[in-house]
Each structure stands twice: as C-alpha cells, then as structure tokens.
Amino acid sequence: MGGGKLYLAQNLKYLREKNGETQKDIANMLFVTEMTISRYEKGECEPNLQKVVDLAFHFQITVDELIAKPIRPVQPLYIRNVRFLQTKYEISDKELALLMGLTMSQWKQCVRFGLELPIGPAERHKIADFFGLKPGELEMRDLSKEGV
Fold first, then answer.
1. Each residue's pLDDT tens digit, 116-141
2. What pTM, to 2 d.p., does this model score?
3. Smallest Cα–Cα separation from 6: which of 65, 54, 80?
4. Nearest alpha carbon to residue 97 among 73, 121, 127
C-alpha cells in the first residue's frame, strides 16, 4: 500500500463550507446521516468508493484532488502576520475588521478561505502604522518567526 497522507476529511469540510452547504445537505445527497458526514470530516471513518466519486462529482473536482492533496489555500503572508499581531496584542475580530475598513463577514471569509484582503495600499499602510511597522513589512517577512 502507498501509505501517503489522505486529505479527504479536511477537503470535504473545506469544500462544503466554501459552497455554503451544511452537513445535512451533503448527507441528503449521499443518503447518509449528518453524523456520518461529521465523522467523515473528523477522519473517524471514510466513505466507500462510490460516495467518494459522488463527492468529487458534486464539488466538480477529481477523486485524486479530493483525497490526495490539500485543497484549502495557504493563507497569504499578510493575513498570517495580521492574525499573529492580532493575537499578540489581543485585538478582537471586530476591532481588526473596523481598522481595515472591512465588514466582519469579509474578514472572516478572508481568514477561513485564505483569500487576499480586499483592501488597498492606504489601508495596508494604516494597519502597518497601527502595529508600529514600516509599509511593506506585513507582506515581506513572517513576523511570527521573528518575535516582533
């Protein structure tokens, strides 16, 4: 056997949430219970091959993409740095969204799905200044590794 890591659990949860679907929606499609979908997403059990094929078809990806590699994009360095500084300085999501001129929904989507922040250079400069950084530092260096 190959023994490589499988990503079905995390990919299923990511794709379901990205599509705005509930566990019940996926359960109904596969003719299983919500608990079964929950267990798939936790990696406690795996669907049979036909259900894997059905999931791949539903999400319009290949079976290989569904199980063999992570689908969730890596968060851009800028967001990782902002999250690091948010934690370090104990800033709430609401305060941070306000600082960036975003709605809470926009901010949460950026974090959850690894999206680029929909803000311009002026807002980025404002955020860098707020944290005592030079413009561009949030995009250039991994601040969490430098103990900023």
1. 677 777 788 888 888 898 877 888 88
2. 0.58
3. 65
4. 127
